[in-house]
Specification:
heterodimer, A: 532 residues, alpha/beta, D-Maltodextrin-Binding Protein, domain 2, 3 domains, five-stranded mixed β-sheet, 43% helix, B: mainly beta, OB fold (Dihydrolipoamide Acetyltransferase, E2P), five-stranded antiparallel β-sheet, 4 helices, globular
Chain lengths: 532, 255
C-alpha cells in the first residue's frame, strides 16, 4: 500500500511538473548550440514566412531562391508562406510562439523581435553563427558564395542588433521618398529645390487649392485634388521628430513622445488637413493612385513602392484612362534643416526561430544566409526601389549594370524605381532607425495615430484646441498601453499585484505539494508513534 | 482521506492544465476565414425592414450627406468580412441601400452575434477610400427583433453605366459574364483572387476577398478553377476600389 501511495504522489508530482512545462513557453526551449557538422543524412522541412509588396515578381524570386537552395541542399525542404503585411506576420508569430509552432525563418522588423524575445530562447541569437568557421558568413563548408560579415553594410547589420546581440540579418533596405509631380509644381510658379523642406511643401500645397468658378481645382481641372499625401504617418512623425532632435523614445524604452514639439507639429498638420491640402493613406488611399491621376503633387511613400509611382508606372491600380502625363521627380522626404537631412532606414530583415533540434536550426540558418547571396539580393532589390544589403551584391556586375541602364524601359529599368534605389544609396549616411525595445512597435503606431486622429478631427470640424491635445495624448497612451512601457520595458518593471486567479493557482499548488509531502511522511510518523 | 487527497490532486492538476490554454500543435492563424456570407434570402418580417428609430438617417439622407459627416443608420447585417483587434468589417443593407462598415469597434463576443439578418444601429463617420463610400470609426448596438437578408439585386444591365454606383455595397448579381483572366494575389492560392470579367466589350475587375470568403469556401475553390472564356453568373457585394470591384460570394456556370 505504501508503494502505491508513493507511486501516486510521484506520478502526481511529475504530472504537475509536466503540465507546467507545457504552459506557454514558461520553460522555453534549450539555448541553441551550433552543431559541429550539418547532418546531410537526414531530411529537414523548414517554413519561411515571407512578406512581399503585392508584387508577384517578389513571390517568384522567393520561389526561385528556394528552388536554387534545395538543389544545393536536397535534404532541406523550404515551405514558403507569403504575406502582404508585416503586422499579420507579427501577430501570427506571437500566436504561434505559445504553441511552439513558429516558422523556422521569418521576415521581420527588429521592433517585432523585441516582443518575440520576451519568451525564453525564442529567437536564435546569430553572432555565434556569423562567426562559425564552417557555416558562418563566408564559411568554408557552405555550398554557396556567401558574403563575409564585413561585406554586409555595417549600418544595416547594426539595425539588427538588440542589446548588443544580433537577432536578425538584414534582407533588403529602403527609405521613404517624396514622388513629386514636377510639372504641377512648376505650373504653380515654383521651382523644386534640391532638398524639399516642410515649409515648401505646405506652401505649394496650399497654393494648389485654388478653385475655378465651377468648383474644380484650377491646377488640374478636376474635382479631386489632395496636394500632399503621406503613406506612413508613423514614419512622418518619427522623421519630423528626429529632424527636430525632439523626444521620441530612448533605448531604455522611456516614452518621450508626448512633448510640446509634437503638439506644434500636429497643429501645423491639422491646419493643412483642415484645408484639404494634406491627407493620409489611411484616410484617402494610396498616394500613388492620386499622383498618377494628377490629383496629388507630393506623394510620400517607400522607395520600395516606386514601381507604382509616375505616369508610366509598371504597376497601377487606376484605370489607364484616369492616368495623366507629367514629369516625376524623386526626392528625399521633406526636411526642417536641408543642410542636415535625416531619413528613416527601413526594410525587411530575417530572423530564425529556435527549435528543439539544433540541426533544424542550422538548416534554417543556411537558408537565411542564402538570401544574402548576390543572385537573390540583386534579383529582389530590382523588383522595387530596394537596395541590396551587402557591398558584395551592390558592387556585383549584375547590379551595377542594372543601375546604369536607368530608363531603358518602363519595366525592369523603370527610371523612377532606379532613382528611388539611388536615393538610398546616396543617403545611407543620413538614415536612422528608432530604438528597439519591447513595445517599440506600439510606440511607432502611436506616433502615426496622432497624425491620423488630428487630421480626421479637423476634417470632421471637431474642436481641436489644447484640451483636445491633452485628451489625444491620454487616449493614445491608453490605446497603445504606453503607460506600461516607460523605462521598464526591458524586463525590469514591477508588474503589480498578482491577479486573484493566479494567487488561487499558486495556493492550490502549494497545498498539493504539502499533501504530497504529507502522504510521504504520514506512514513514517505513524510508525514512529506506534514504536513509542 | 486517500480519496480526498486523490480528488484534491486531480483538481489541482486539471486547474494547471486548464491554465495552459490552447496546446494545439497546428499553426494558429489570426485571420478570419469568414464563412459568414449570407445564404439565399431567409426573410424575416420584411414589412418592418426599414422601420427606423428616432435620429436615424434614411438611406437617402445618408447618400446625400457629405464625406466626414457623422451619420447614424440602422441596417441589417448581410455578411462579415473580418474581425481584427476589436474591429469588425461588415456588409450591411436596408431596403433602400447598403452600408459598408469598416473596422467598426466590436468585441469578439459581439462579432459572433452579427449573424446575417441581424439588425444594428450604427453611428460613425461617412468616409471615402479609393471610391468606396463607407462608415468608419463606428460603434453599434444590436436591435433585437427584426431580421432581414437581402435578395441579390440583378445589376447586369447597369454594368458600365453611371447608375451602378448607386447600388454600391449592395448584394448584387451579374448574369452571363465572360471570364477574361483569373490570378491569385501572390501567384498561388492563399490570398485574394483577382478576376477580370467582360460584358459587351468592356472589362471589369472583380475580386474574391479572402477575408470574406476564405480559402476553404466553395466560392474560393470554384473561382480558382475558372478559365478564360468561361461564361458565369456571379453574386457578390458591390464593393468599390478605383471603380467597381465586386467581392464575389458565389459563381455558377451561366445557363
Amino acid at each position: 500500500m505504501s508503494i502505491l501511495k508513493r507511486c501516486l504522489a510521484a506520478a502526481t508530482a511529475i504530472a504537475i511538473s509536466m503540465s507546467l512545462t507545457g504552459c506557454h513557453g514558461s520553460q522555453g526551449l534549450k539555448e541553441f548550440e551550433i552543431p559541429e557538422e550539418f547532418d546531410e543524412s537526414k531530411n529537414y522541412e523548414i517554413t519561411f514566412w515571407a512578406k512581399n509588396d503585392s508584387n508577384k515578381v517578389q513571390a517568384q524570386i522567393y520561389q526561385q531562391a528556394i528552388a536554387d537552395f534545395e538543389k544545393l541542399y536536397p535534404n532541406i525542404t523550404v515551405n514558403l508562406r507569403p504575406y502582404n503585411d508585416y503586422n499579420r506576420i507579427y501577430n501570427d508569430v506571437i500566436t504561434n510562439i505559445s504553441t511552439n509552432t513558429t516558422p523556422n525563418v521569418c521576415i521581420t522588423y527588429p521592433d517585432h523581435i523585441a516582443t518575440y524575445n520576451t519568451g525564453k530562447n525564442v529567437v536564435v541569437p546569430l553572432d555565434g553563427l556569423f562567426d562559425d568557421e564552417k557555416y558562418g558568413l563566408g564559411g568554408s563548408a557552405l555550398k554557396f558564395d556567401s558574403p563575409r560579415k564585413d561585406e554586409i553594410i555595417p549600418q544595416f547589420l547594426e539595425e539588427c542588433s538588440l542589446g548588443g546581440i544580433h537577432y536578425a540579418i538584414p534582407f533588403m533596405r529602403s527609405t521613404e521618398a517624396c514622388y513629386v509631380n514636377k510639372t504641377m509644381v512648376e505650373a504653380l510658379g515654383y521651382t523644386l529645390p534640391e532638398t524639399l523642406t516642410w515649409d515648401f511643401i505646405w506652401e505649394v500645397s496650399e497654393a494648389a487649392m485654388k478653385k475655378n468658378a465651377d468648383g474644380t481645382f484650377a491646377i488640374n481641372g478636376q474635382n479631386v485634388l489632395i496636394p500632399f499625401i503621406y503613406k506612413s504617418t508613423d514614419n512622418m512623425m518619427i522623421q519630423m521628430l528626429r529632424q527636430k532632435d525632439a523626444g521620441y523614445s530612448d533605448s531604455d524604452g522611456n516614452i518621450l513622445i508626448f512633448n510640446d514639439t509634437v503638439k506644434e507639429l500636429l497643429k501645423t498638420i491639422a491646419k493643412h488637413g483642415e484645408t484639404g491640402a494634406f491627407s493620409t493613406f489611411k484616410i484617402s488611399s494610396y498616394p500613388g493612385n492620386f499622383l498618377n491621376a494628377g490629383q496629388c503633387i507630393f506623394a510620400v511613400d517607400s522607395t520600395a513602392g516606386a514601381t507604382w509611382m509616375g505616369s508610366h508606372a509598371p504597376l497601377s491600380d487606376i484605370h489607364e484612362s484616369s492616368k495623366v502625363e507629367f514629369e516625376t521627380e524623386v526626392l528625399p522626404v521633406p526636411q526642417f534643416d536641408p543642410d542636415n537631412p535625416k531619413m528613416i532606414s527601413q526594410g525587411p530583415s530575417v530572423c530564425i526561430f529556435n527549435k528543439e533540434d539544433p540541426q533544424e536550426v542550422l538548416a534554417s540558418w543556411l537558408f537565411a544566409q542564402f538570401l544574402l547571396t548576390n543572385g537573390v539580393q540583386a534579383a529582389y532589390s530590382e523588383t522595387e526601389g530596394y537596395v541590396p544589403v551587402t557591398s558584395k551584391a551592390q558592387g556585383s556586375a549584375e547590379y551595377t549594370d542594372y543601375l546604369s541602364r536607368i530608363g531603358e524601359d518602363n519595366d525592369e529599368h523603370y527610371d523612377i524605381k532606379i532613382k528611388a534605389a539611388k536615393l538610398l544609396i546616396d543617403h545611407v549616411g543620413e538614415t536612422f532607425v528608432t530604438p528597439v525595445f519591447n513595445g517599440s512597435a506600439s510606440l511607432r503606431s502611436a506616433a502615426g495615430q496622432m497624425i491620423e486622429n488630428v487630421t480626421k478631427s479637423v476634417r470632421r470640424h471637431e474642436t481641436v484646441d489644447d484640451a483636445y491635445y491633452d485628451k489625444l495624448y491620454g487616449d493614445i497612451t491608453s490605446l497603445y498601453h504606453l503607460d506600461s512601457l516607460g523605462g521598464d520595458s526591458l524586463g525590469k518593471k514591477d508588474l503589480g499585484e498578482l491577479p486573484g486567479t493566479a494567487k488561487a493557482l499558486i495556493a492550490s499548488l502549494i497545498a498539493a505539494w504539502a499533501l504530497i509531502a504529507l502522504s510521504f511522511l504520514a506512514p513514517k510518523i505513524k510508525k514512529k508513534l506506534k514504536a513509542k | 482521506m486517500k480519496k480526498f487527497l486523490a480528488l484534491i490532486l486531480a483538481a489541482v492538476l486539471m486547474l494547471t492544465l486548464a491554465a495552459c490554454g490552447d496546446t494545439n500543435d497546428e499553426p494558429a492563424n489570426n485571420g478570419d476565414d469568414g464563412n459568414s456570407v449570407n445564404e439565399p434570402a431567409e426573410n424575416g418580417d420584411d414589412a418592418n425592414a426599414d422601420a427606423a428609430s428616432e435620429g436615424v438617417m434614411t438611406y437617402e439622407e445618408y447618400a446625400a450627406a457629405a464625406v466626414d459627416t457623422q451619420v447614424t443608420v440602422e441596417a441589417y447585417v448581410q455578411a462579415k468580412q473580418s474581425w481584427w483587434d476589436n474591429k469588425a468589417t461588415v456588409y450591411t443593407q436596408d431596403k433602400d441601400g447598403a452600408y459598408f462598415l469598416y473596422e467598426m469597434a466590436c468585441s469578439e463576443e459581439d462579432y459572433a452575434k452579427l449573424t446575417p439578418g441581424t439588425k444594428i444601429k450604427v453611428t460613425g463617420y461617412k468616409s471615402e477610400w479609393s471610391g468606396e463610400v463607407e462608415i468608419t470609426d463606428a460603434t453599434f448596438e444590436i436591435i433585437e427583433g427584426d431580421t432581414w437578408v437581402a435578395e441579390a439585386f440583378d445589376a447586369t444591365s447597369l454594368l458600365g453605366t453611371d447608375d451602378l454606383i448607386k447600388h454600391q455595397n449592395e448584394f448584387v448579381s451579374f448574369k452571363g459574364l465572360t471570364v477574361e483572366a483569373v490570378s491569385y494575389k501572390n501567384d498561388e492560392p492563399g490570398d485574394d483572387i483577382y478576376v477580370t470579367v467582360g460584358l459587351n466589350g468592356q472589362s471589369y475587375n472583380f475580386c474574391v476577398e479572402v477575408y470574406l470568403t476564405g480559402t476553404d469556401t466553395d466560392v474560393y475553390k470554384a473561382v480558382g478553377e475558372l478559365k478564360a472564356g468561361d461564361v458565369v453568373d456571379i453574386e457578390g457585394f458591390l464593393y468599390w476600389y478605383e471603380g467597381v470591384n465586386t467581392h464575389i460570394t458565389s459563381v455558377t456556370a451561366a445557363n
